[in-house]
Design goal:
heterodimer, A: Formate dehydrogenase/DMSO reductase fold, 2 strands, 3% strand, B: alpha+beta, Alpha-Beta Plaits, 4-stranded mixed beta sheet, two-stranded antiparallel sheet, 10 strands
């Protein structure tokens, strides 16, 4: 038996469409505050573009700082979408159902936010067209395909396209429900978006086939996107601590770790904001917690390996980077915070069933992971650069400026605001998926106990 | 553009035994190449422009302490790590052995700066400014770079081009060792060096004084370093960047020989 009440279809429609059909009182004040943060950041970016990157804290050895750290962080968050939708769909994990849409939408918005970062970080962002698109046909000048900076946009745009398709295909049946529940202009817009969905057998079959196909096709993208982002560092032969073959799997697992934690936290927030206690239930958060223990431990293995590989070579410049990370203020403090918040605090909390089901404790664990994962990227990027080679004469430290801090903070506001605005227009818990899960669910007698069982999905 | 009939492959030899750290090369470069003035803030922010810089290291403990100087400039690597990482081909190898930077094409990703092991690429964090009375000292042969792009040592390509124009185009001669020196077509740092610690030349020119050093270092690679006949070595040679700049080790009077294995 599932936890909580069994709901009728009518109740489900009423509850899950609540976020769209009525506006909660807190909604516009929150959006306004987030909008103000974005406005401040837009001004900061404007000043930065106008006056030059001198307003940041970047300097000669440390040419990449907060912006690239934040870029890698948001690309990492975006990995939750595929993890929860595609992999769990193919693995037939039933508990994924209410979490999929939020995860996919978080993927879309974090990818878009991540893409802002390398653009504002360049010296001449207005020339970015040169970089991402082949531009000078007449003289035969094409982007340099040997650089990870060209692989990056290719991988990210592929991921963005396939995730968008994934979200749209899953949204079609829900658009139809919305079409039937709205009037006037909203009705007309949803009618167009629903693309004539009637819910007949042929449409359902096509929709399911498209979903499964996209799940399978998106998997290589899932592995490649963060691998390619890690090669921004792995391919840099001159930065000793970056030039490591372990980076691709290490970054992918780390991305899943931070992404799934972010989705778990987003679900808890949605449950609280829109009163979806009957849909996002403790069992779902519990299952995410159990998944995260495995992911976190896999990630921790790679962390230890990365440090071990680095130390084992005993090259003085690499050892110097490790010494910076472990012993130099303030990196030593950040390193301790990073290891504790990314692994020890959350995993200890997730090991207890009662704590996994306590939403406050789950929130703390999930936020803790993301603080730690942000620090992880920072501790990889900056100490690697501040003493890059053996020329001690040019070593220099890095302090982020207020501009960098504002812009990084605003990316969090941007993702939150986009999620909130999305939840006003599209259902963030997939109606048809939850209903389908209910249809497929039944109870079986095993001895004297009644346990929930699930039919095969296909 | 001036194209040369003769195949050049420029190179430089830096004799550390002759360098006394006077920084004349730094100033000459600053003037020749329109580098912005490095004020106190530029150094405090670690954003000073020094296409050639003198690194000073202390060796030994007090009282037997010695200052060691290494002039470091763009090594014009044959196998340059900065080149493959630029997404827009703003930096590439030209056919005269130079690693050149196209300011117009640069978008400022700063990946090349990260990937340069010698730390000789400079990013324009601010728009460069000169006081009114210094506006007229700018070199008309060199672009003033805008903010947001990366720049670096060019081996004073404007002087080489002028030399090719005057010597090879107009007079049908060859820009070699003597003509380089006679017309001051060598890089500004070489011209300014009072102790002749810097020597510039064409590796394809048999008469060039740099040729024996390049031949020797090319013949015996890093695995056969001990067999080298000269004091030559390449900086960070184990990275296999194959620089077109060769350093000559400091002669250590205590060791008696100039061809030792020590730096």
């Amino acid at each position: 038996m599932q936890e909580g009440r069994v709901l009728s279809t009518r109740e489900m429609n009423r509850d899950l469409l609540r976020s769209i059909l009525d506006t909660p009182r807190w909604f516009w004040p929150v959006v306004t505050v987030l909008g103000l943060v974005l406005l401040i950041a837009a001004i900061a970016i404007g000043i930065m573009v106008n006056r030059g990157l001198g307003v940041t804290g970047l300097n000669r050895p440390v040419a990449w700082g907060f912006f690239i750290t934040n870029f890698v962080f948001w690309i990492g968050i975006s990995h939750a979408g595929v993890m929860l939708s595609a992999i769990l769909r193919l693995a037939k994990a039933e508990w994924r159902r209410p979490a999929t849409r939020a995860a996919e939408v978080l993927t879309l918005f974090s990818l878009m936010t991540a893409m802002i970062m390398p653009i504002v970080h360049t010296g001449r962002p207005w020339r970015i067209l040169y970089w991402v698109f082949p531009y000078d046909f007449a003289r035969g000048i094409w982007p340099n395909i040997r650089t990870p900076l060209v692989w990056d946009p290719s991988a990210i745009l592929t991921y963005l396209t396939s995730s968008t398709l994934f979200v749209i295909i899953a949204l079609i049946p829900d658009f139809a429900v919305l079409r039937d529940h709205t009037t006037g202009i909203a009705h007309r817009v949803y009618s167009v978006l629903a693309m004539g969905w009637e819910g007949n057998a042929r449409q359902w079959k096509l929709q399911i086939v498209a979903g499964v196909l996209l799940s399978a096709l998106i998997l290589p993208v899932f592995v490649s996107v963060h691998s390619i982002v890690s090669w921004d560092f792995g391919m840099a032969a001159s930065v000793k601590s970056w030039h490591s073959t372990v980076f691709a799997p290490y970054f992918v697992v780390g991305a899943v770790h931070s992404g799934v934690s972010a989705v778990a936290f987003a679900l808890i927030l949605l449950r609280w904001c829109y009163g979806w206690q009957d849909y996002i239930r403790h069992e779902h958060i519990d299952a995410l917690g159990r998944l995260l223990i495995v992911v976190a431990t896999g990630w921790f293995y790679f962390l230890v390996m990365e440090i071990l590989f680095g130390m084992y070579g005993r090259e003085p410049d690499e050892l110097m980077v490790r010494q910076t990370q472990f012993t130099y203020w303030p990196y030593n403090a950040w390193f301790i915070v990073f290891v504790i918040t990314t692994y020890f605090i959350p995993v200890i909390l997730w090991l207890s069933r009662a704590w996994r089901r306590n939403l406050w404790i789950m929130s703390i664990a999930c936020i803790s992971v993301n603080i730690g994962m942000w620090l992880e990227r920072f501790l990889i990027i900056v100490p690697g650069l501040i003493n890059k080679q053996l020329f001690t004469f040019v070593w220099a430290d890095y302090r982020p400026s207020i501009f960098e801090i504002i812009i990084v903070a605003a990316t969090f506001a941007l993702v939150t605001m986009l999620m909130l605005l999305f939840s006003r227009v599209f259902p963030l818990v997939p109606l048809y998926d939850v209903k389908e899960g209910d249809v497929l669910k039944t109870q079986v007698q095993i001895g004297r106990r009644t346990v929930p069982a699930t039919f095969r999905e296909d | 553009m001036v194209t040369s009939r003769i195949d050049h492959k420029w190179g430089m030899v830096v004799d550390l035994d002759r360098c006394n750290g006077c920084q004349a090369c730094v100033v000459a470069c600053q003037v020749e190449n329109n580098l912005p003035i490095n004020d106190k803030n530029a150094f405090l922010q670690n954003r000073a422009y020094e296409w050639i810089r003198i690194e000073r290291y202390w060796e030994g403990d007090y009282p037997n302490i010695k200052a060691r100087f290494i002039p470091i400039l763009c090594q014009h690597c044959e196998n340059a790590p900065c080149e493959p990482v630029c997404p827009v081909f703003a930096t590439y190898r030209n056919d005269e052995g130079l690693n050149v930077q196209l300011y117009n094409r640069c978008v400022g990703t700063r990946y090349c700066i990260n990937n340069c092991p010698y730390q000789v690429r400079f990013f324009n964090y601010w728009h460069p400014n000169w006081p009114e009375r210094l506006q007229n000292q700018l070199n008309p042969d060199v672009t003033v770079r805008t903010r947001g792009i990366t720049e670096k040592c060019t081996f004073c390509i404007q002087r080489l081009r002028r030399g090719q124009l005057q010597v090879e185009r107009r007079n049908g001669g060859e820009l070699g060792d003597s003509t380089l020196r006679a017309g001051n077509h060598m890089p500004a740092c070489v011209q300014a060096c009072p102790t002749n610690a810097l020597t510039f030349g064409d590796q394809n020119d048999a008469q060039s004084p740099i040729k024996p050093y390049f031949d020797d270092v090319n013949r015996y690679n890093i695995h056969h370093e001990s067999e080298r006949q000269t004091r030559g070595y390449r900086m960070l040679e184990d990275m296999n960047t194959k620089p077109n700049v060769i350093y000559l080790k400091k002669v250590d009077p205590n060791k008696g020989s100039s061809g030792g294995h020590h730096g």
